[in-house]
């Protein structure tokens, strides 16, 4: 990983408060699915970077797409940046999704802005990805639903404005009763991940990986602020989301 | 260009030290640049026994600053000595063991535990605001500062630097107390205690409610304290608080610091320390100065 | 939307007060908006006799903050009462006389000089870091805080608010001392003492060497202190330090402030106060709250 | 005076580290010669505005030209702004130059970036302005020398790279020996103004006004940080550069 002054090729609104930013830098190191970039906010007031997952990475073009939602001041400032400007970018950071040997079938499960990082996993292991489950609050904030052309695709919204009405974890649960993959990659808001974990307790032979979020400082493992509770042996310890994760084995994650 | 400084007998190849708690044990930053080019590294604050630290969220962003409430998560002194120190010693840079305790006995045992350890300097953290037991309490009253310094010093084989808290009415009292207790140097400032509130949830942003403020926001306070302390004690002063650039570092050197530490800036930019070193060099060149000695304490006030 | 607050008997139409020293006697801001829409105005710090203040430069910019060393330039109490107060009284807003002295006698004479004056509240500034004689000295030791409050209160006809210095180890000690001395309210924070250096001239930026740090940079420290003080005393607390927006103000109200003051933000933007009032209103509306009382002290910590 | 989000029509380098910025806002109030604008730096770290004198003001077009030099971070950030962007602007501020009744002949004397505000005086009272004296360090930093087409024009540089070599105050002094105006408007660095004051002590019947600079906070008279020492009666008092000035009677100014 390295620090880049990456050029913005595109920074476009794709849904309500949701933007896609495409960055390019000749020196980009190859990013893997589930890794993230750490972007500096270009005003002088915000001294912390913002972690954003890799949505798609093209090593031939040396381009990286990110999808981000306006949450607070930092992402609002990012959304105002223009093509041609440059962003101070650290990438690729963290440990992404991994595919254990012998894995034949992978499913993807994501919610809200957490759907974003799953796409690079699909691009990388597309031949193995047989089903994709995405949940959104409503149609306004749904995005990236046309990307998964070679997998069975399930979508649910809480208000029913798009796809099935309800929670995507329920939909997943119903499908798991019939059919099981070897591995599920997931990412989404904590309440969703909590019910995902509950669902998956019924199917202990399906391996699950989850990408976590926590407020970050350095993003590279040096400051110990991004801790998450990970079970190890009888006890637990605080691991660094930025360096030990952001992807962890779902079984080991303690959502409290 | 002579960047060498002598910090109470410890020769630093340049006056830029990575500040404790922002730099781990150095390995992560070594992936960005060769950390041998640093004047020194003050490692993550160590305690006798391993500590998990405080629950997350442990960080909040504030205007040109940040709050942290890590709470001294660390593997404990012996794991540091066996697992981390040997790796760090392969690098050609001064190693500073930053240590904290909850009781006077803890501090004494830390000093003993460090006997024979191959560290260049010990930095006594008596000012960590993020641990409930002890910690900050030792760093407020001058009499306590003197006492803990004295007790530690008694068993300490390495040169001893005491790290001062800025959350006091007159920091020169504590600097003199550390000097009287036998400190070979003082470093300042640790973080100012602060707070941030999430108005949507109506809760503090930090799980720990309060945290330590650092970064550019605190620089004016840090610089004032370094200036005051440098005039009040005879031992060398290491200055820190909000240093991001070589120019910032030069301000602290002019104010009387023998060396500086860079903390929060490492979080904004992993390349911060080398940039600060470069910036000091550029300043000296631009002013046709032969070395860093020509600016230390040279404020005209 | 009910923005009314009761500050120790003084009814403010909203909880937003212009902070002393950043708002003159109001006239300049009245050219931008009708200052009657403010909850109140704390006027430039007054002394018994006129003061010229410190030599320039009196201001230095820092990261998301600023240092000032105005040093209480003011026309003196009687000129205020005869020339400024009548103009200010034409406006429909609470008037707070911010007063400072160099000796206990000064303070007593100020209290006497204010007898019969048509001001709603007196704010006792015992924490100005920019004057050599007295000033800040009264604001550091709790015993002195209590003493000066008591002496002033004895002759003071108006409700009395004591303004606390943040340059202390434990601000709750001083808040309780003010309460014990008879204060009807406390306001905090005054500025943190800081410094800036011009590395090209090798001189301090301020002619006065040090100055008072204010603005967004200090907000986390201010908010922490307001939170601590609100839990420690029974009298109302007025919070300030770095407030720029309605959201910032809501943080202070949640932390327990009955009202807030806006200082440095007036310098960045003459429309800051009305924007803060608007922002509080918008927050209350967005959360379907009927009034500002529903958020005061409602932090869940 | 008011607060505007003025549009940048132009922001162009015109000499070494010197830029001309043209702002427009439909609501601009008329600016007078010697008044200034107070510009907000559009990043979040610099909370103080920057005072810049009005170089030219056109009330029909509602455009205001400013000429500024890169000195530190704030002006550097300003210089990076692009046409079409907007700047938070307070204007018109302060008390500018004034022409007492009976004034027949005015001269202008300026140095360095202090030459900028004189031009609007020339535009406003051009029929009375008979001579203009500008001093610069060198040719690289000279600007606006082609604007004064109807007055006698004198220019000097310290290194002689443009116009006469030497100080413009000496040139002025030589001319004053032969000929005197009723009034001189001046603006420039303090050392120049000091020698200007010394020169003018020889010609006490020539009225002189000088535009001063001091570090500012509010810029509108509320914070008392921008003080300058002004003689009044036997003593002196601190006046506000932003509100009582920036233009003062030269005789009353104490440069210390
Ligand atoms: C590994 C990782 C990957 C992420 N990937 C994406 C992504 O692909 N798309 C996307 O829209 N968002 C992603 N997020 C969340 C994103 O980082 C936050 O939404 C963003 O930092 C909010 O910044 P702000 O300035 O808008 O919000 P503010 O609330 O103003 O931010 C204040 C501080 O809180 C931190 N913060 C706030 N919310 C979060 C959060 N949910 N997680 C971590 N830190 C937070 C900010 O980084 C900042 O330090 C990811 C987070 C992590 C940890
Ligand atoms: C009434 C008035 C009119 C002015 N007109 C012009 C003009 O037309 N063109 C021009 O180029 N400059 C002008 N100046 C000077 C200009 O304001 C400063 O050069 C500018 O503020 C420097 O900002 P900075 O961020 O680049 O420098 P920094 O040094 O980074 O600024 C730090 C702080 O110091 C203040 N400061 C620094 N230098 C000065 C100075 N010389 N005067 C006042 N404050 C200063 C800044 O405003 C800021 O608050 C004028 C100043 C005043 C008071
Ligand atoms: C995340 C974080 C963790 C810290 N941990 C420690 C620590 O363990 N021991 C210590 O003495 N100081 C610790 N500090 C304080 C810094 O070493 C330094 O004193 C302070 O941050 C001011 O410098 P800065 O503004 O350059 O960061 C920590 C600071 C931060 C930001
Ligand atoms: C230029 C300036 C002058 C000040 N003068 C006074 C004063 O006369 N009396 C006083 O009690 N506080 C004075 N203060 C302190 C403010 O009232 C306030 O306590 C402090 O600035 C923190 O609030 P802020 O961050 O909103 O500015 C002054 C502050 C500034 C910036
Ligand atoms: S953000 Fe610094 S260790 Fe993870
Ligand atoms: S800058 Fe505030 S009074 Fe002049």
From TrEMBL, chains A, D:
SUPFAM superfamilies: Ferredoxin reductase-like, C-terminal NADP-linked domain, Riboflavin synthase domain-like. FAD binds at residues 50-53, 67-69, 74-75. The keyword Transport applies. GO terms for molecular function: 2 iron, 2 sulfur cluster binding; electron transfer activity; flavin adenine dinucleotide binding; metal ion binding; oxidoreductase activity. InterPro entries: Cyt_c3_hydrogenase_gsu, Dihydroorotate_DH_ele_sf, Dihydroorotate_DH_Fe-S-bd, Dihydroorotate_DHASE_ETsu, FAD-bd_FR_type, FNR_nucleotide-bd, PyrK_electron_transfer, Riboflavin_synthase-like_b-brl. The keyword Repeat does not apply. [2Fe-2S] cluster binds at residues 218, 223, 226, 242. Residues 1-99 form the FAD-binding FR-type domain. Gene3D superfamilies: Dihydroorotate dehydrogenase, electron transfer subunit, Nucleotide-binding domain of ferredoxin-NADP reductase (FNR) module, Translation factors. Its cofactor is [2Fe-2S] cluster; FAD. Pathway: Pyrimidine metabolism; UMP biosynthesis via de novo pathway; orotate from (S)-dihydroorotate (NAD(+) route): step 1/1. GO terms for biological process: 'de novo' UMP biosynthetic process. Belongs to the PyrK family. Responsible for channeling the electrons from the oxidation of dihydroorotate from the FMN redox center in the PyrD type B subunit to the ultimate electron acceptor NAD(+). Heterotetramer of 2 PyrK and 2 PyrD type B subunits. HAMAP family: DHODB_Fe_S_bind. PANTHER family: DIHYDROOROTATE DEHYDROGENASE B (NAD(+)), ELECTRON TRANSFER SUBUNIT, DIHYDROOROTATE DEHYDROGENASE B (NAD(+)), ELECTRON TRANSFER SUBUNIT-RELATED. This is Dihydroorotate dehydrogenase B (NAD(+)), electron transfer subunit. It comes from Gehongia tenuis. The gene is pyrK.
UniProtKB/TrEMBL annotation, chains B, C:
GO terms for cellular component: cytoplasm. FMN binds at residues 20, 44-45, 98, 125, 163, 189, 215, 241-242, 263-264. Its EC number is 1.3.-.-. This is Dihydroorotate dehydrogenase. PROSITE patterns: DHODEHASE_1, DHODEHASE_2. InterPro entries: Aldolase_TIM, DHO_dehydrogenase, DHOD_1B, Dihydroorotate_DH_1, Dihydroorotate_DH_1_2, Dihydroorotate_DH_cat, Dihydroorotate_DH_CS, Dihydroorotate_DH_I. It comes from Gehongia tenuis. It is found in: Cytoplasm. SUPFAM superfamilies: FMN-linked oxidoreductases (SSF51395). Pfam families: DHO_dh. It catalyses: (S)-dihydroorotate + A = orotate + AH2; (S)-dihydroorotate + NAD(+) = orotate + NADH + H(+). Residues 3-284 form the Dihydroorotate dehydrogenase catalytic domain. Binds 1 FMN per subunit. Belongs to the dihydroorotate dehydrogenase family. Type 1 subfamily. GO terms for molecular function: dihydroorotate dehydrogenase (NAD+) activity. Substrate binds at residues 44, 68-72, 125, 190-191. Pathway: Pyrimidine metabolism; UMP biosynthesis via de novo pathway; orotate from (S)-dihydroorotate (NAD(+) route): step 1/1.
């Amino acid at each position: 990983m390295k620090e880049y002054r990456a050029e913005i090729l595109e920074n476009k609104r794709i849904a309500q408060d949701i933007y896609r930013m495409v960055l390019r830098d000749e020196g980009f190191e190859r990013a893997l699915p589930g890794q993230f970039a750490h972007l500096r906010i270009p005003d002088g007031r915000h001294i912390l970077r913002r972690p954003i997952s890799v949505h798609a990475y093209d090593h031939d073009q040396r381009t990286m797409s990110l999808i981000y939602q306006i949450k607070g001041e930092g992402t609002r400032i990012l959304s105002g940046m223009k093509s041609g400007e440059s962003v101070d970018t650290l990438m690729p950071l963290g440990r992404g999704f991994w595919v254990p040997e012998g894995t034949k079938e992978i499913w993807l499960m994501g919610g809200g802005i957490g759907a974003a990082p799953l796409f690079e996993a699909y691009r990388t292991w597309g031949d193995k990805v047989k089903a994709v489950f995405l949940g959104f609050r409503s149609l306004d904030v749904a995005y990236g639903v046309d990307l998964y052309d070679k997998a069975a695709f399930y979508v649910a919204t809480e208000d029913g404005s798009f796809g099935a009405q309800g929670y995507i974890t329920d939909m997943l649960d119903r499908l798991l009763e019939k059919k099981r993959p070897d591995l599920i990659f997931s990412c989404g808001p904590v309440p969703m991940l909590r019910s995902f974990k509950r669902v998956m307790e019924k199917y202990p032979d399906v391996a699950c990986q989850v990408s976590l979020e926590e407020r970050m400082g350095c993003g590279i493992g040096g400051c110990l602020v991004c801790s998450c509770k990970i079970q190890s042996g009888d006890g637990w310890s605080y691991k660094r989301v930025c360096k030990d994760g952001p992807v962890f084995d779902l079984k080991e994650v303690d959502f409290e | 260009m002579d960047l060498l400084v002598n910090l109470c007998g410890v020769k630093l190849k340049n006056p830029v030290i990575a500040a404790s708690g922002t730099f781990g044990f150095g390995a992560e930053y070594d992936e960005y640049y060769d950390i041998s080019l640093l004047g020194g590294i003050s490692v993550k604050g160590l305690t006798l026994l391993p500590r998990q630290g405080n629950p997350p969220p442990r960080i909040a962003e504030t205007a040109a600053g940040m709050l942290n409430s890590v709470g001294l998560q660390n593997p404990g002194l012996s794991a540091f000595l066996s697992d981390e120190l040997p790796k760090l010693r392969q690098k050609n840079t001064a190693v500073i063991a930053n240590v904290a305790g909850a009781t006077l006995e803890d501090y004494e045992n830390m000093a003993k535990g460090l006997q024979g350890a191959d560290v260049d300097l010990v930095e006594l953290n008596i000012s960590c605001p993020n641990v409930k037991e002890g910690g900050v309490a030792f760093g407020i009253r001058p009499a306590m500062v003197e006492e803990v310094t004295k007790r530690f010093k008694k068993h300490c084989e390495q040169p001893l630097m005491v790290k001062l808290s800025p959350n006091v009415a007159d920091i020169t009292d504590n600097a003199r107390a550390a000097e009287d207790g036998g400190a070979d140097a003082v470093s300042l400032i640790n973080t100012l205690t602060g707070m941030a509130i999430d108005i949507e949830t109506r809760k503090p942003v930090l799980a720990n409610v309060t945290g330590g403020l650092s970064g550019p926001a605190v620089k004016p306070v840090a610089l004032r304290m370094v200036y005051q302390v440098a005039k009040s004690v005879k031992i060398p002063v290491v200055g820190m608080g909000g240093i991001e650039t070589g120019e910032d570092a030069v301000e602290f050197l002019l104010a009387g610091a023998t060396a500086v530490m860079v903390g929060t800036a490492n979080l904004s930019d992993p390349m911060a320390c080398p940039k600060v070193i470069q910036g000091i060099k550029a300043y000296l060149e631009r002013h046709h100065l032969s070395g860093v000695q020509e600016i230390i304490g040279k404020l005209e006030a």
